[in-house]
């Protein structure tokens, strides 16, 4: 699998986003473990892109939190 390793600056950016999710009231699950990320990076094609995390919203409120946060200029 071709990996694009994130820089330390990018990792900090991902961490800030995920922390802001929790602080914003996100109640679903956040998966950062390698196993979950590998499963989600794999489909029926020959390509894989390993995500830094995966979020699993519990309800529409969580989806709205993710959407609002992702729309902010710093993210």
From TrEMBL:
An example of a GO molecular function for this protein is: flavin adenine dinucleotide binding
The cross-references to InterPro entries, in alphabetical order and at most eight, read: FAD-bd_PCMH-like_sf
On the tree of life, the source organism's domain of life is Bacteria
The identity of this protein, by name, is FAD linked oxidase
